[in-house]
Amino acid sequence: MNGYADYMVEDEEFGERRERYQRKLIETLLERLENKYLTREKMYRKILATQREKFSLTGTINRIDVLDGVRENVKTSLLFGNYRRASWYLKTLERLCRKYL
Predict the structure, then answer these.
(1) What is the pLDDT along the chain (101 residues), one digit of tens a residue?
(2) Contacts with 46 (C-beta within 8 Å, 6 or more apart), sequence order
(3) What are the angstrom distances between the C-alpha of 85 and each of 5, 10, 56?
(4) To which H or E segment does residue 83 belong?
(5) What is the pLDDT of residue 72?
(6) I need a surface site. Which of 26, 39, 92, 101 has the fewest CB within 10 A?
(7) According to the model, what pLDDT value does residue 51 have?
(8) Are 94 and 72 a contacting pair, CB within 8 Å?
(9) How many other β-carbons are positioned within 10 Å of the β-carbon of residue 68?
(10) Cα–Cα distances in Å, from 2 out to 9, 10, 11?
(11) 8 Å CB contact between 68 and 94
């Protein structure tokens, strides 16, 4: 064998720890994003403010539905252990929140 095989780490605990930390990180970031943009009070304020603006209430409700759908995709991706997809949806959710809210 070459000397490279001596440095390979096949540690099952490492993989489990990595997955646990990835899950915890994404869940924490999602929680912070929800607290910053997606609280009930902020949603009510946005809907009420929209009624006075040039945008329609239906358009605002549709945008909020899109935000909720993307948020659910983050949670579903976490459920299936697809952390790359969860982080992609999380970044998409952040961009949509900044744009819509």
Answers:
(1) 455 555 555 666 888 888 999 999 999 999 999 999 988 888 878 777 766 666 677 888 888 899 999 999 999 999 999 999 999 999 999 999 998 87
(2) 60, 64, 101
(3) 31, 25, 32
(4) helix 83-100
(5) 96
(6) 39
(7) 62
(8) no
(9) 13
(10) 15, 17, 20
(11) no
- Pair of tokens at residue 66: 């899109």
Residue 59, number of CB atoms within 10 A of its CB = 11
Distance in angstroms (rounded) separating the CA atoms of residues 74 and 78: 6
Distances (CA, A) of 34 to 51, 67, 74, 94: 23, 10, 12, 9
27-42 per-residue burial string, b: 16 or more CB within 10 A, e: under 16? eebbeebeeebbeeee
Helix intervals (H) in 38-82: 40-50, 57-79
Instruction: Supply φ then ψ for residue 33, to 5 degrees.
Output: -65, -40
**Cα atoms in the 13 Å half-sphere on the side-chain side of 66:** 15
